[in-house]
UniProtKB/TrEMBL annotation:
The keyword tRNA processing does not apply. PANTHER family: ABC TRANSPORTER ATP-BINDING PROTEIN ALBC-RELATED. PROSITE patterns: ABC_TRANSPORTER_2. Keywords: ATP-binding, Nucleotide-binding, Transport. Coiled coil: none annotated. The keyword Nucleotide-binding applies. One of its GO terms (molecular function) is ATP binding. This is ABC transporter ATP-binding protein. Pfam families: ABC_tran. InterPro entries: AAA+_ATPase, ABC_transporter-like_ATP-bd, ABC_Transporter_VariousFunc, P-loop_NTPase. Residues 5-229 form the ABC transporter domain.
């Protein structure tokens, strides 16, 4: 199966500062992919390169096997930018009609039914919608073109918990119905853990992790035990994060084999713990 997104040595530089560098990825089709990292890590830059809003300084990116700006790619990719750029003076119905005019593959029934289902009045001006309603409208427009790939840049960052839950429910229902591949950029790690099957972690403009979540969680463990035994542990396994007291050690490790549970208390890590450990390690 053709990957949803492939990047080879991809980078984007602004002056002397690299927003993204040496990014090599192959993201699987048919999955919900979480793109996480601290502010300034390169998430928005990667998505902007993927949809052709930016040109790379180095390397290359292909979407669904084609360059981002090719006509076939544009028709098959939906994108919701972080600021959800909608025309505030248009009504909801006018926004949907504009979506139909701009997109040859537009599905008017699906877009209209989606808006009706979440209760947004079609005659309401976009500028008078709540933040949650604007996010749902932006999602409806992106999905109305029936994309094979949907890219979402921090779509729920400014929403309250109820609006965020409703947005993610709408998104996951669409994934279940159509099988669209989703790349969801977010700094809300709990949302990523609930919805995403594959994780890409960016930090300091570089890819730190990229794999399916079950594999990553199976490879990592939280271990607690005597500090004196820590050197032997870190010699056998990769320490991602370590905290020490005078006698105690607590580490998140990437295990390369069994861990001696006679010495160490071992438990699985959550996706949030794993992501924070890598981000903290890189920052340090």
């Amino acid at each position: 199966m053709t990957p949803a997104l492939e990047a080879e040595g991809l980078g984007r530089c602004y002056g002397r500062k690299w927003a993204l560098r040496d990014c090599t990825l192959s993201l699987p089709a048919g999955q919900v992919i979480g793109l996480v990292g601290p502010n300034g890590a390169g998430k928005t830059t990667l998505l902007s390169l993927a949809v052709g809003l930016l040109r790379p300084t180095e390397g290359s990116v292909r979407i669904l096997g084609r360059p981002p700006r090719s006509p076939g790619t544009v028709a098959e990719v939906g994108f919701v930018a972080q600021d959800k750029p909608l025309y505030r003076n248009l009504t909801v119905a006018e926004t949907l009609r504009m979506g139909a005019w701009l997109n040859p593959g537009w599905d008017p029934r699906a877009a209209t039914e989606r808006i009706e289902r979440i209760g947004i009045p079609p005659g309401q001006k976009v500028g008078r919608l709540s933040g949650g309603q604007r996010s749902q409208l932006a999602l409806a427009v992106a999905l109305g073109k029936r994309p094979r790939l949907l890219l979402l840049d921090e779509p729920v960052a400014d929403l309250d918990p109820i609006a965020r839950r409703d947005f993610l429910r709408t998104l996951m229902a669409e994934v279940a119905e159509s099988g669209v591949t989703v790349v969801l950029s977010s700094h809300l790690l709990a949302d990523v853990e609930r919805t995403c099957e594959f994780l890409v972690l960016l930090s300091t403009s570089h890819v730190q992790l990229a794999d399916d979540t079950e594999t990553l969680l199976a490879q990592h463990r939280m271990v607690t035990g005597p500090r004196a035994a820590a050197p032997a542990l870190t010699a056998a396994h990769t320490a991602v994060q370590a905290d020490y007291t005078d006698r105690q050690a607590s580490l998140i490790v990437r295990a390369h084999g069994p861990i001696d549970e006679r010495v160490w208390t071992v438990r699985p890590v959550s996706l949030e713990e794993l992501a924070l450990a890598y981000m903290t390690a890189v920052a340090a």
